[in-house]
Design goal:
- The structure holds two protein chains of two kinds.
- Chain A is mainly α.
- A two-stranded antiparallel ribbon of chain A has the order 1-5.
- In chain A, helix 8 packs across helix 14.
- Chain A starts with a helix and ends in a 14-residue tail after the last helix.
- By secondary structure, chain B is mainly beta.
- Helix content of chain B is 7%, strand content 46%.
- In chain B, the strands form eleven sheets. Chain B has a 22-stranded antiparallel beta barrel. A five-stranded mixed sheet of chain B has the order 10-15-16-13-14. A four-stranded antiparallel sheet of chain B has the order 3-2-5-6, covered by helices on one side.
- In chain B, a hairpin with a 2-residue loop joins strand 46 and strand 47.
- The longest helix of chain B has 17 residues.
- The chains are: A mainly alpha, B mainly beta.
- Chains A and B meet through helix 1, helix 2, helix 5 and strand 4 of A and strand 22, strand 23, strand 24, strand 25 and strand 27 of B.
Chain lengths: 489, 1011
């Protein structure tokens, strides 16, 4: 009996103890390991979707870039509505500005996702890979160009992701070096990409050339810019005759669109993750406050055009009523009503405010499907005009041809000026052609006009956002040395 | 306890004389003293031996004993008696109901221990305390009962959860304690019927170390009710019905006041006065429109009994509770069925099994959020009617994008969650040789949670974020399962005065489940229930991206080995030591296993010779514990980079899903460890009438698991990604806990039991290795920066904003500043320029308080007079701050009545700012919005009457008691919001009030009936 007792007792416990070894807790994740990916063409295509995804987040670059300029005011509900946006408008943005940090983080997320593909670009071969790699390089250049525009010197990573731990060792790379990489990427992309993609929304050769031209312009490399923009001008693009049609749903991905960020209204979104929205968040933010009437939907009345930019349009410019919505006139004409937000000017950014007719998937203010026309043919023409006008061996005649194409469509008379007057005319044309599209602040900065045009802008300080001092670098997270690296595992 | 040691001593002596004395058969009957009723199933053991007997149905027993033997007669719920055998052959025993605290048995994890020998900080709550409070959820029975356990309701809505914090907030991650019901892990306590609970044991200190990697937030062990052997069938019926009401309505402006105030604020901003005639009467009181009386009822029937070899307990319960907001739209109802069965298969082989089935259904309304029902009731324009002249709900025009007609909102809310859950346990205990016991216990949970949300097409007004133009039906069905398999061996041995108990064991835990979620758009009918998902014009599979790899499932496991040594010498010097090794799937190969040691010592001073018998101090024990315990509550797979991110783009005008990296990986992540130290004493004074427990603890959490903000260059803010979980902070909690109780009979008819406990808590963050040296969280206003922070030198989750210093009285004061960059005028709040640089900027923000109470107290008073009984429970929370965040900063929303005392001109007031629809800095987060959330709440008062047994016996009724009870009787507080007791429980961002659904006051009548 005793023996049986011992046996039973030992068995009942040991049976299970021995049956279960440490391997019991070795359970692999259901999601694929990121380091064991890229085994098929589909894997590359899937990762490319991930790299494109962050383009959605550039809504903030567009909106905040416009607000930073003298084109629009922050607006919103009140003086304390999104302090980060108000601060940028007033040029008093400090070290903890959430929106600037968002741009910083989201653009680096885009860089990392493009680099993820490029890190593994040699792993698996298949036909058509060049196109994918070309798009990845275009996207890396796109995101890095945004970073350089906003922040100047930024940490540079090429064909490798910045991984956890790198933030302790990576430092800022001089802007010139980042530009060199952007140029190299765009040159490679232009070579790899077809003139047109079978899939609407993917980057093309013309998009790479146009962006490269812009990158050259930002560095005052006018000869290079003129050359590459010439190629882009000769691409499969044309000016859409009806300027008003460009910004409506039917005008998306039209012949004047060189590169367009593709948005949709089919998926819901929330304020806790604005970058997760597949809609154009800026459109809801720009929208008319408490609007009740036809054609448009309501929004949050941010990014409201100033009287000054309204007055910048010449008489007879058909673009004025497309770009600027005079809400009181509109309400009177349409029997609609609307509210007034902070810094109400009576004007709204009509290109990018909410329209009726979409699915209004919740939150409807965050899921507007309006594509962002990132690079328009008119922009390319005006860049080409500027490059020709400002290059050492200036070709003002060519510049005028391009400029007047744009003016002609706007219903304006052709100009015939040269030299500095032409330069001024091109600047003026860029402003009114592209108002509301997020370019003006950076145009002012790169041409040295920001301090004279923007209230509160201090030359030598506000050309880039965030801060050049080392303390500031800490604040954007490029080094934790003072935190004691040993303590972060 | 002295008698214990005496007993052992006596027994040791007697054992020697045992040989020379003749054995005789002793017979007798055990009866209940008060009623004279025989007690079946009473255990009679000869002290110091394993010889024993138990009484039969008529209370009779027979045992062979020697003269001088000490018989120990014990019965659950009765005071244990000891009788020394003389020369008689018949011994009749009367047992007294009630239990001396020291005879209580405490569950210490994988076993029990006599309370007098416990060396850790352990609290026990018995069924009787729970019954007095009539809680709907178990947590409510803990509030105010255990020093150092703080419960905050996350909402007063029926079925809503509570936050349990044992000894403070030690991490910015998950602070929930480990909760085991009959050894079964239960995460959602709403499925447990409090009426089914026998007792709750709370392990507060390192004695929780037996649970290793999951124990850092404390452990709550719940035991369900069972039957007793050799007892006849006992059926009882408990029932109550009650009415619930809100405890508070906030003062807001009526229509006339509103019109005057709006006119004033518009004129101040340079606009025209919108109300030509402001005398609009009182208008609509929106709070009256949303609050209502609501029904609650609870019915329970249970049966217990036992044969010679088995015991059983069954219970059936039904709870129905409507909400005080929305009535049936925030209803909770629950059916619970429970069984408990034990069987002695052999003399030394016992089977124990339990099973609980729960079916609960909860209807939910939007709450504690911008645009939630109560938020809207406070902000809604009082000049608007509920329905307009066409009979349609009036539209909340001009009140911003979120404020909508709350009555329309309730009418259009369809959100319900149905839970079907089975929890079952099966255990075998085998005793062998002398002192060995082998146990194997298997615990299993299976829950199906089905959620259905319908959003009809609705228009609440221009630009409202809640407008729906294409109706939606969302159906989620989630399945959660887990099992725990514990196997362990104990050995118990006494060698002369050395008493040793050793435990070794293994535990395996696995939790797994599946998520399904579909949204149907464009249903043919806009009436809830008329269309199903299949009718939708478009169906979206919300788990589509996850399903490809099976990532809509989860599988988390733990593998643990544990060992415990308990030793005492003469019951006087006590020692306990625990080691546990845990392996968790949450950690990578580098740190998969952790070892958690803890130990405790005790000294029962009252057993010492120098502590001679006195009636002043009957029992005194000092104890100390120290140990390292862990916390593994982090998301899964944070040690490896997986493609769990979101990759969605639009090509060819179609949404396309791709792949992207998820949360940043940290391969070196490991459990956070808590170094927990506790010293304490337990004492019984004045003939055991007074009991006292004092504890002082220091808990230092190191390697805090933090999803820390990291540099943006790492891409952690990409969709579907997140910051890495890193071990990057230290937090310390210190506190003193005192519990004092009195229990005594004043006269034969009057007995009193009362207890008072208080706990202090000091919380300090010692270190955060975050990007800026702080983590932030919570939300304030619209578009403003997060107001709460975790930062070294401050309590976790403290509020960070501007300190105010009155109101600018005139333009000169404004000119002399300092001001913010926002236009400021006389009547605006004056912020303190902390750094003296002449402007108010972000650097001027300071600590404005924190949501952690400095002191919590509980006071319970009960007395019985003849057949009447009375009990009350009071809880106090002192020193916690709350952020008032239910005011929408919009020109035309309604305001708190407090604005009637606003600044209207020089020297009119120095506290409340002017009103203007124009630019002003008053909405910036400042101490103007931070209020003292201290409160004292009478939680429960109950009075009952038990009919004399002799009257009811003829009817076959053993006991009949009727009672009346009020829960949440009254709250003393200065806080101006609905309910200072509510919090969302977030470590950073808790204590921010967006219009909490208040805990209702419930007036109820009930009866307890036993056949």
């Amino acid at each position: 009996m005793k023996k049986i007792n011992i046996l039973l007792g030992a068995l009942s416990t040991l049976l299970f103890v021995t049956a279960c070894s440490d391997e019991f807790i070795d359970v692999p994740s259901r999601n694929e390991n990121s380091e064991e990916f890229f085994n098929s063409q589909e894997d590359y295509e899937d990762a490319l979707i991930g790299a494109y995804d962050l383009l959605h987040a550039t809504y903030l670059n567009v909106m905040l870039g416009e607000i930073a300029s003298d084109n629009t005011l922050a607006g919103g509900e009140s003086a304390t509505d999104v302090p980060g946006i108000q601060q940028v408008d007033d040029m008093i943005h400090g070290t903890t500005n959430q929106q600037l940090r968002d741009i910083w983080g989201w653009m680096f997320a885009g860089v990392n996702r493009a680099n993820y593909i490029l890190e593994f670009q040699d792993k698996t071969s298949f036909s058509g890979k060049d196109n994918i790699i070309g798009q990845a390089k275009f996207l890396r250049a796109y995101y890095y160009f945004e970073l350089v525009k906003w922040f100047g010197d930024v940490p540079l990573a090429v064909d490798e992701r910045l991984q956890f731990g790198d933030q302790f060792i990576v430092d800022r790379t001089p802007k010139a070096q980042v530009y060199a990489q952007i140029e190299a990427d765009l040159i490679a992309a232009a070579a790899a990409l077809p003139a047109t993609q079978s899939v609407v929304g993917q980057a093309t050769r013309g998009a790479a050339q146009s962006l490269l031209g812009k990158v050259y312009l930002y560095q005052d490399k006018f000869e290079d810019a003129a050359t590459v923009l010439e190629n882009a001008v000769n691409g499969p693009y044309s000016l859409v005759a009806d300027y008003a049609s460009i910004f409506e749903h039917a005008g998306e991905n039209g012949p004047g669109s060189v590169f367009e960020v593709q948005y949709t209204d089919v998926e819901g979104a929330g304020f806790d993750c604005l970058q997760c929205s597949e809609g154009n968040v800026a459109v809801g933010f720009n929208g008319i406050r408490q609007y009740n009437g036809p054609v448009f939907d309501s929004g949050f009345s941010f990014n409201v055009p100033t009287q000054e930019v309204v007055d910048a349009f010449e008489n007879g410019d058909i673009r004025k009523d497309v770009a600027i919505l005079d809400i009181e006139a509109w309400n009177t004409a349409n029997g609609s009503s609307s509210g007034e937000g902070y810094e109400h000017t009576g004007y709204f950014n009509r290109k990018y405010i909410a329209r009726k007719g979409d699915l209004n998937t919740g939150d409807q203010n965050l899921t507007n499907p309006n594509n962002y026309r990132a690079i328009r043919y008119a922009d390319v023409l005006l860049m080409a005009a500027e490059a020709n006008n400002r290059k050492p061996s200036a070709n003002d005649a060519q510049a005028l041809i391009y400029l007047n194409q744009v003016r002609q469509r706007a219903g304006l008379a052709a100009l015939n000026v040269t030299g500095a007057a032409l330069t001024e005319a091109i600047y003026q044309e860029r402003r009114v052609e592209l108002v509301g599209e997020g370019h003006h602040f950076f145009d002012l900065v790169r041409t040295g006009r920001a301090a004279q045009e923007i209230d509160g802008f201090v030359a030598g300080k506000h050309e880039v956002f965030l801060f050049r001092k080392s303390k500031s670098i800490l604040l954007v997270g490029v080094g934790h040395k003072t935190q004691g690296t040993n303590l972060i595992i | 306890m002295k008698t214990n040691v005496k007993r052992i001593f006596t027994v040791a002596l007697l054992l020697v004389s045992n040989l020379i004395l003749a054995q005789q058969d002793i017979k007798g009957t055990v009866v209940e003293k008060d009623t004279g009723e025989p007690l079946p199933g009473v255990t009679i053991v000869i002290s110091g031996t394993d010889k024993g007997a138990s009484t039969d149905f008529d209370g009779n027993f027979s045992i062979a004993a020697n003269e001088g033997d000490q018989l120990v007669i014990s019965y659950l719920g009765f005071e244990t008696q000891e009788i020394t055998v003389g020369d008689e052959t018949t011994i009749n025993i009367e047992l007294v109901e009630g239990q001396s605290q020291l005879d209580e048995v405490v569950i210490v994890g994988y076993g029990t221990q006599a309370k007098k020998e416990v060396t850790g900080a352990v609290a026990v709550i018995g069924a009787e305390s729970i019954e007095k409070l009539n809680p709907v959820r178990i947590e409510q029975a803990l509030q105010g009962q255990v020093a150092g356990v703080n419960i905050t309701a996350s909402s007063g809505a029926p079925g809503a959860g509570s936050n349990i914090r044992i000894r403070g907030v030690s991490t910015n991650g998950d602070n929930r304690p480990l909760i085991l019901v009959d050894g079964n892990v239960i995460e959602d306590l709403s499925v447990i019927n409090p009426k089914d609970i026998e007792n709750i044991n709370v392990l507060k200190d390192a004695s929780a170390g037996i649970y290793g990697v999951r124990a850092a937030n404390g452990v709550i062990l719940v035991t369900t009710k069972g039957g007793r052997k050799n007892t006849p069938l006992n059926i009882s019926f408990d029932s109550y019905v009650g009415v619930q009401n809100t405890t508070k309505r906030l003062g807001v402006l009526n229509a006339t006041e509103y019109a005057y105030i709006i006119n004033e604020s518009q004129v101040a901003a340079g606009n025209n006065a919108p109300f030509a005639d402001a005398n609009l009467g009182s208008g609509t009181n929106w709070q009256n429109q949303v609050f209502q009386e609501a029904l609650i009822s609870d019915q329970n029937i249970s049966a217990t009994g036992g044969t010679e070899k088995s015991s059983y307990g069954f219970g059936l319960g039904y709870l129905y509770q409507d909400g005080i907001v929305g009535g049936e739209k925030s209803n909770f109802n629950r059916i619970t069925a429970r069984g408990n069965y034990t069987l002695d298969i052999l003399d030394n082989l016992q089977l124990k099994s339990t099973a609980i089935y729960t079916r609960s259904n909860q209807d939910r309304l939007a709450e504690n959020a911008l645009g939630s029902v109560l938020f809207n009731a406070l902000n809604m324009n009082p000049t608007l009617p509920v329905v307009d002249s066409n009979g349609a709900y009036s539209l909340a025009e001009g009140l911003g994008a979120e404020v909508i007609n709350p009555v329309a909102q309730i009418a259009n809310s369809y959100d319900q969650a149905l839970v079907n859950k089975i929890s079952a346990t099966l255990g075998l205990e085998y005793r062998f040789l002398n002192g060995f016991s082998a146990q194997s216990r298997f615990q299993y949970n299976h829950a199906d949670v089905d959620t259905e949300i319908f959003k009809p097409v609705v228009n609440y007004g221009s630009g409202k974020v809640f407008n729906i133009s294409r109706n939606e039906l969302i159906e989620n069905s989630d399945n959660f399962q887990d099992y725990t398999w514990d196997s362990f061996l104990t050995y118990e041995k006494s060698i002369s005065d050395h008493n040793i108990k050793v435990l070794v064991g293994q535990s395996v835990f696995k939790t797994f489940g599946t998520f399904e979620s579909f949204t149907g758009f464009g249903l043919p009918s806009n009436v809830y229930g008329e269309s199903s998902l299949a009718d939708a014009t478009e169906i979206v599979d919300n788990q589509e991206a996850n399903k490809e790899n099976g990532a809509n499932t989860f599988d988390v496991r733990l593998l643990s080995y544990f060992s415990r040594l308990q030793y005492n010498y003469k019951g006087k010097y006590l020692l306990s030591a625990v080691v546990r090794r845990d392996g968790s799937t949450r950690f990578g190969p580098n740190n998969r296993f952790g070892i958690f040691p803890s130990g405790s010592l005790g000294w029962v001073v009252s057993e010492e010779d120098f502590f001679s018998d006195n009636n002043f101090v009957n029992f005194l024990k000092f104890r100390a514990s120290h140990g390292i315990i862990g916390n593994d509550r982090i998301p899964d797979y944070r040690f490896v980079s997986t493609l769990a991110g979101e990759a969605t783009y639009v090509v060819n005008e179609e949404r396309v899903l791709g792949k992207a990296e998820g949360a940043l990986a940290n391969p070196d992540i490991k459990w956070e460890s808590q170094i927990s130290s506790n010293i304490g004493l337990d004492a019984n004074l004045f003939n055991n009438a007074v009991n006292l427990s004092v504890d002082y603890f220091v808990k230092r959490t190191e390697d805090l698991l933090l999803s820390a903000q990291v540099s943006g260059i790492l891409g952690s803010t990409a969709p579907g990604s997140s910051a890495p979980t890193i071990n990057a902070g230290d937090v310390e909690n210190r506190g003193l806990e005192v519990l004092i109780g009195y229990q005594g009979n004043i006269t034969d008819d009057l007995s009193i039991n009362t207890s008072f406990n208080f706990a202090t808590l000091e919380n300090e963050v010692l270190f955060v290795a975050s990007e800026n040296g702080f983590e932030q969280g919570g939300g304030f206003g619209v578009g403003l920066e997060p107001p709460a922070r975790m930062e070294a030198g401050h309590p976790i989750g403290y509020f960070y904003g501007y300190e105010t210093n009155g109101v600018f009285q005139n333009q000169t004061e404004v000119n002399n500043g300092p001001t913010t960059n926002i236009d400021t005028a006389p009547g605006d709040l004056r912020f303190v320029d902390q750094d003296g640089n002449g402007v108010i900027d972000l650097d001027d923000r300071v600590n404005l308080g924190d949501p952690i109470p400095d002191v919590t107290m509980g006071f319970n008073l009960g007395f019985n007079y003849k057949n009447f009984d009375f009990s009350s429970a009071t809880f106090a929370s002192i020193g916690n701050e709350i952020v008032r965040n239910y005011e929408r900063n919009q020109p035309f929303v309604n305001r708190r009545a407090a604005v009637l005392d606003r600044w209207v001109g020089p020297n009119s007031t120095t506290t409340d700012h002017r009103l203007t629809a124009g630019a002003n800095p008053n909405a910036l987060f400042s101490d103007y919005f931070v209020e003292d959330g201290s409160y004292v709440r009478i939680q429960n008062i109950q009075a009952g009457y038990t009919f004399p047994a002799e009257r009811t016996e003829n009817l076959g009724i053993k006991k009949l008691r009727i009672y009346g009870s009020v829960n949440n009787v009254y709250t003393f507080t200065k806080y101006s919001g609905f309910d200072p007791s509510a919090s969302n429980g977030a470590p950073i961002g808790g204590g921010i009030d967006l219009g909490f659904y208040p805990v209702p006051r419930t007036i109820m009548a009930g009866l307890n009936l036993t056949f």
